């Protein structure tokens, strides 16, 4: 995205005098700068609240300009609000969930895309349809199933549910990607006597790296940000991921806005970091599903 | 196996090539079946089986212990007379139109504005994407802080002389739903913009230039040259937005829990309340089935679109 300026002069047949585009450039920034500032203002506001002291907020109000600097909000959120533990829970669920989902999805996509499985198109679309279902239609039975399996209220249940629900979408995307790999590459390996497992591990997976990276960035934010599955299969606060823990924090620290704001900032940081580190993957991940 | 050898005889000149490639592909090795069946079994067990169960549960009355009592269509009949269900249904329609309409309008406008490479475009884009990486819970909490009586929204309104407008946004039944909606749109716009930016890449620039040479205004060029070429993206955006709207739960749950006085209740939050807070599993399932029936048309639209380009 930073390199965009180098691509510029392809269009613009020089017909009008050059002053017109330049004037329009001014207008463009005159609109976009205030708009962008307005767009990020909510984040900036919450950030300042997070760093203000409770007394300052209580005395002068939330809307006042900050006159204090304090980390109390963060320490309270981490200690009494158990945000630290919740972040660890989220990290665990996200990491295992993303790896297992992508692994299983890549296996299914490999089978469907490279072998003549009967009704493969129907299977693929069926799997995708499962991912598009409104989760509400699954919640009550899923809670009941986890109870009858004895895994209700465990992080394991949350991971299993996340994997099951995400699979269809990732399979679909990876299927599209694997279809694009030329057959010659695989034929060469086959002639050399490589079996399906080797072809999958040594040829297909390395070639799918860009798609996997995009999906991993996307899946990370999806699983990390989920609330509804967490409140469906978990009851004990110790096991809550960050989203559910934040709601508890909000209930437990009513009107301690510096604590609530700090918790929200702590919850926002990991995904914001993933976003900035992998912005390209993230954006292509969003597209990969929609463009197909 | 050996039978494949008889079929061969394609222009293989060299040493004994016993297998013809196509035949080798046609015979699906056992391990490959396993590759497919394991993920498929997981999805069947955790998605399709529960979904079917919701349907059968919706014809019962059940509090989770003991046996479910079969009540036929009673739950659905009760839904029709339930004022909260009607509010939730109406709110879901408002939500779908408001959430979809606003995020598409703003997202498309921004995509058009930020489509051409120019100085600063990267920064603007990043700033607008950023909210979409936050969870809906985080977004909800951010805006809860903003909407407090002495928060940024009211102090801004007072600063520009609109004291009369300021109010307790989330505690007022007239505004709660819309206040949540604004927060949700703020987060969604970046995503819609990404989709349209990709769509605009596929728009042929020479057509627009030709129209410009012919004296078409910027609006005419957009309306008659660019927009028709975005039809594919529009379908996707439409389906995605409606599916997302019907799912919406987290942000409402984080900001109002459907209150005050059920004024911001959506079908999804009401379903959760019935199913998990009040443990009316049958009734909750019936609401879930209604959500499913509303979504299925758009799911099919998305699937049709997904297959066509393959």
Can you offer a commentary on this structure?
The complex is a heterodimer of chains A (292) and B (310). Chain A is mainly alpha-helical. Chain A has one domain: MetI-like fold, CATH 1.10.3720.10. Chain A contains 14 helices and no strands. Chain A has helices at 19-50, 54-60, 72-79, 83-114, 120-132, 136-148, 155-179, 183-191, 196-207, 209-225, 228-233, 242-252, 257-277, 279-291. In chain A, α4 runs parallel beside α7 and α12 packs antiparallel against α13. Chain A is globular and about 75 Å long. Chain A starts with 18 loop residues before the first helix and ends with a helix. Residues 1-19 of chain A have low confidence and may be disordered. Chain B is mostly helical and 310 residues long. Chain B has 2 domains: 2-57, no CATH class; 74-308, MetI-like (MetI-like fold). Chain B contains 15 helices and 2 strands. Chain B has helices at residues 2-7, 21-26, 30-57, 74-81, 83-113, 121-129, 136-147, 152-159, 176-201, 205-213, 218-229, 231-247, 250-255, 267-277, 281-308, and strands at residues 60-61, 69-70. A two-stranded antiparallel ribbon of chain B has the order 1-2. In chain B, α7 packs across α9. Chain B is globular, with a radius of gyration of 27 Å. Mean pLDDT of chain B is 83; it is low at 1-24. Chains A and B meet through α1, α4, α5, α6 and α7 of A and α2, α3, α6, α7 and α8 of B.
Give the key terms.
heterodimer, A: 292 residues, mainly alpha, MetI-like fold, B: mainly alpha, two-stranded antiparallel sheet, 2 strands, 70% helix, disordered N terminus, transport (chain B), Sugar ABC transporter permease (chain B), MetI-like_sf (chain B)
Topology:
The complex is a heterodimer of chains A (292) and B (310).
Chain A: H1 19-50, H2 54-60, H3 72-79, H4 83-114, H5 120-132, H6 136-148, H7 155-179, H8 183-191, H9 196-207, H10 209-225, H11 228-233, H12 242-252, H13 257-277, H14 279-291
Chain B: H1 2-7, H2 21-26, H3 30-57, E1 60-61, E2 69-70, H4 74-81, H5 83-113, H6 121-129, H7 136-147, H8 152-159, H9 176-201, H10 205-213, H11 218-229, H12 231-247, H13 250-255, H14 267-277, H15 281-308
Antiparallel strand pairs in B: 1-2
Helix pairs in contact in B: 5-9, 5-12, 5-14, 7-9, 9-12, 10-11, 12-15, 14-15
Family (chain A): Belongs to the binding-protein-dependent transport system permease family.
Keywords (chain A): Cell membrane, Membrane, Transmembrane, Transmembrane helix, Transport
Domain ABC transmembrane type-1 (chain A): 87-278
């Amino acid at each position: 995205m930073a390199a965009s300026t180098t691509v510029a002069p392809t269009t613009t047949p020089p017909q009008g005098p050059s002053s017109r585009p330049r004037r329009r450039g001014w207008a463009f920034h005159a609109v976009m700068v205030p708009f962008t500032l307005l767009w990020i203002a909510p984040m900036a506001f919450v950030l300042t609240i997070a760093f203000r002291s409770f007394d300052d907020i209580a005395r002068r109000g939330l809307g006042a300009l900050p006159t204090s600097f304090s980390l109390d909000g963060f320490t309270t959120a981490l200690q009494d609000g158990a945000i630290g533990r919740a972040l660890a829970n989220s990290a665990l669920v996200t990491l295992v969930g993303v790896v297992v989902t992508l692994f299983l999805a890549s296996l299914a996509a490999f089978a469907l895309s490279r072998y003549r499985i009967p009704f493969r198109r129907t299977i693929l679309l069926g799997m995708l349809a499962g991912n598009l279902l409104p989760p509400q239609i699954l919640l009550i039975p899923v809670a009941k199933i986890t109870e009858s399996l004895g895994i209700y209220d465990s992080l394991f249940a949350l991971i299993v549910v996340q994997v099951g629900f995400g699979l269809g979408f990732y399979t679909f995307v990876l299927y599209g990607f694997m279809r694009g790999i030329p057959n010659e590459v695989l034929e060469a390996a086959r002639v050399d006597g490589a079996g399906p497992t080797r072809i999958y591990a040594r040829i297909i997976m390395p070639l799918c790296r860009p798609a996997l990276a995009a999906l991993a960035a996307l899946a990370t934010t999806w699983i990390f940000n989920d609330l509804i599955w967490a409140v469906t299969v978990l009851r004990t606060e110790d096991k809550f991921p960050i989203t559910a823990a934040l709601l508890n924090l909000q209930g437990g620290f009513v009107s301690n806005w510096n604590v609530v704001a700090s918790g929200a900032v702590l919850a926002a940081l990991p995904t914001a970091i993933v976003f900035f580190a992998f912005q390209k993957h993230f954006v292509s991940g969003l597209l990969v599903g929609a463009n197909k | 196996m050996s039978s494949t050898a008889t079929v061969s005889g394609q222009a293989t000149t060299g040493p004994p090539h016993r297998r013809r490639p196509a035949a080798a592909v046609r015979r699906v090795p056992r391990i490959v079946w396993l590759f497919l069946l394991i993920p498929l079994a997981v999805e069947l067990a955790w998605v399709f089986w529960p979904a079917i169960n919701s349907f059968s549960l919706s014809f019962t009355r059940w509090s989770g212990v003991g046996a479910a009592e079969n009540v036929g269509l009673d739950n659905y009949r009760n839904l029709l007379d339930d004022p909260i269900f009607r509010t939730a249904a109406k709110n879901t329609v408002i939500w779908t139109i408001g959430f979809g309409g606003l995020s598409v309008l703003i997202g498309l406008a921004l995509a058009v504005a930020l489509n051409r490479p120019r100085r600063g475009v990267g920064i603007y884009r990043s700033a607008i994407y950023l909210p979409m990486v936050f969870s809906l819970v985080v977004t909800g909490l951010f805006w809860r802080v903003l909407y407090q009586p002495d928060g940024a929204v009211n102090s801004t309104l007072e600063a520009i002389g609109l004291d009369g407008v300021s109010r307790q946004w989330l505690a007022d039944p007239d505004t709660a739903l819309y206040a949540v909606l604004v927060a949700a749109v703020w987060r969604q716009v970046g995503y819609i913009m990404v989709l349209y930016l990709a769509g605009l890449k596929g728009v042929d620039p020479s057509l627009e230039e030709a129209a410009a040479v012919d004296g078409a205004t910027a609006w005419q060029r957009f309306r008659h040259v660019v927009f028709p070429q975005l039809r594919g993206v529009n379908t996707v955006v439409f389906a995605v937005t409606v599916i997302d709207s019907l799912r919406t739960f987290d942000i409402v749950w984080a900001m109002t829990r459907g209150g005050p006085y059920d004024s911001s209740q959506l079908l999804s939050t009401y379903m959760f309340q019935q199913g998990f807070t009040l443990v009316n599993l049958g009734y909750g399932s019936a609401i879930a089935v209604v959500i499913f029936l509303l979504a299925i048309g758009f799911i099919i639209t998305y699937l049709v679109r997904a297959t066509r380009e393959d």
